[in-house]
Amino acid sequence: MIRWFFIGSLCFVGHTLAGQEPKRPEIDIQNFIETMFQVPDQDINYEDLYESLYQLYLDPIDLNRATKTELSRLYQLDLRQINELMNYLNRHGPMLSLYELQVIDGFDKRTINNIRPFVVVRSPGDYHMQGRLVQRVAKNENTYLLLRARRTVENKKGYQRVDPGRYMGSPYQIYGRFLSRHSKDYSLGLTFEKDPGEKIYWNHQQHSYGFDYYSYHLFLENKGKFKRISLGDYQAQFGQGLILGAGFNPGKGAETITTVKRGNSGIRPYSSVLETGFMRGAAFTYAISRQIDISPFISRMRQDANTVSVTDTDEPEEYISSILSTGLHRTRTEWNKRKQITETTYGINLTYNAPGRNFQGGLTYLASHYSIPIQRTPTLYNQFEFNGKHNYNLGIFANYNWHNMLLFGEAALSRSGGQAYIAGLMSSLTPELSLSLVYRDYAKDYHTFYGNGFGEGARTINEKGIYWGLKYTPSRRWLITAYYDWFLFPWLKYRAEAPTSGYEFLTKISYSPSRSTKLYLQYRQQSKERTVSQENMNVKKIVSGVKRSVAGNLDFQVHPNIGLKSRVQFSTFDQDGQQSTGVSIMQDLTIQIAKLKVSTRFAVFDTEDYENRQYVYEKDLLYAFSIPAYTGQGTRTYILLQYSPVRKITLWAKYGRYLYDNQTTSIGSSNEQIIGNTQSEIKFQIRYKL
Description:
Blueprint: H1 2-13, H2 29-36, H3 47-58, E1 61-62, H4 68-72, H5 79-92, H6 109-115, E2 119-120, H7 133-139, E3 143-152, H8 157-160, E4 173-182, E5 186-194, E6 201-203, E7 208-210, E8 213-223, E9 226-237, E10 266-269, E11 279-287, E12 292-303, E13 305-310, E14 317-323, H9 332-336, E15 341-353, E16 359-374, E17 388-402, E18 405-414, E19 419-428, E20 433-442, E21 463-472, E22 478-489, E23 500-514, E24 517-533, E25 540-559, E26 562-575, E27 578-593, E28 596-607, E29 614-615, E30 629-630, E31 633-646, E32 649-660, E33 666-667, E34 674-675, E35 678-689
Parallel strand pairs: 1-2
Antiparallel strand pairs: 3-4, 3-35, 4-5, 5-8, 6-7, 8-9, 9-10, 9-11, 11-12, 12-15, 13-14, 15-16, 16-17, 17-18, 18-19, 19-20, 20-21, 21-22, 22-23, 23-24, 24-25, 25-26, 26-27, 27-28, 28-31, 29-30, 31-32, 32-35, 33-34
């Protein structure tokens, strides 16, 4: 009775009725990304990362049934907070409301607000709906159909050519998705897409059925001893990602503690528009006992590749020089590279969870077979890359939670004999101070096609390094984070014709004087070595390129319906005695007027070279992700409208425009060239909830 009275008091203070659960808020993607992710320094497609984040949002964690591993996947809670939550549940039983988090030691308002989009408190029996799957889909409020179209307003050269190099299709990107999902029960989805320049084409012999790309899945959970069953497209993540590392893996960023460890999320459905990095087939997780799970999987899919035919031998040979991941089939040349190789993948994972959930360990085996051998064009730096038709990986991982310290690690081996290791710890030293430490060693001949280990490089190969992270919270208003990462590339790599090393460190100071005002200042410095040629001499040397970046940000909620965001970014790049600079200044405005939400930006940028390009997060349509690189001199403006005329329908429209001062005649190159100094884009989207 006392507990019920206390929870009712918390609910009253929270301006809601006793017994009512607060509505789960929409996730603020932009704010979450700026807090968690590394500032990118290369053109990477973050669609899969963004999709994984929304998967986490669509499948919130029930705090009453969550394990320590599941809570760590939030990347928002430190070890002390997780242990305090577990202790509270053990002492008092299941929570009655999210408002109970306020009485748990270590859960301040900032932490609770950060995790609210990803967690729920459910009563027993709230997971499954009654009836057959078709009936559950029809009743589920999380069933929707989404359609999107976008195009560049200006004509690109690829659409104007009359030779075989022209784009075969229209300049529109067309995207659609049907998804029905009920937490801990099922997920059913179909995604289709046509990129700009691609044509809608039907030809069974060429494996083309209308749209260029389809993704589909049926995913079931908690069916007796079958914890998960996946048919169609799926991804998997086990251990620290040395073998299977798909999913939401932020890596290095302003959150310096919780993001260094990969979550053991297992098998999960796939519905992104990226045309590589996933499996297509069947997989399941079965509980052999209360402590041991087994997860076998198999996949077979065709992939794009550069095919080379050798005819000057007694028997003609064919091999693949590289597997392509762009997913673009706009020209006849790109179309001819489509689905040239068949990849067959299979494997198994065994995971052991000790009673009390303080220890977790597992074994993973993965084998990949290609229909045509891969034989890369030989260069100095790629001579240890994978060649052949067959590869396998075998690995072991373990996590151990001791009080407020978590130890984790994984070791893996590939068919070549190359090995990969990673080991680390996270610790809450005091309620105010947390520490993380990670060591990794990835051999130059370690080969993995689905791995995504923590590190500096984009792939889990040819890297050694050690990372230190700190997080200090002196008060509820102040937050200070920092990390230092030293890395070594033992063998040659692209743009480095000798073994090289480097370092990176970042520090961020955040201050929240009130609920309506948030400020932060961030400094980042990175040093990498690369090969440069000396002028007027046929001599090459290794030099360090040092990039320094400063970002200042102010968020101010003028009114509950009016928000302002001001941001300044400045960078310098020093190499071989030469220095260049770049700067960008942005002002964002968000207004909510009844059912209409308006988001706008005006930005000015001036960069002396490509090394100082300014990556900036932009608000975009739901399930769309935008981190453009501002380069050159000019302005960037956009307006994003979101309107819900009725409860089941939501509409989006976005118009964005670049105006370049330093490119007066044309923008871009080759088929992407635009005549003039303006590049603009329009997007439309509709979501209908069934």
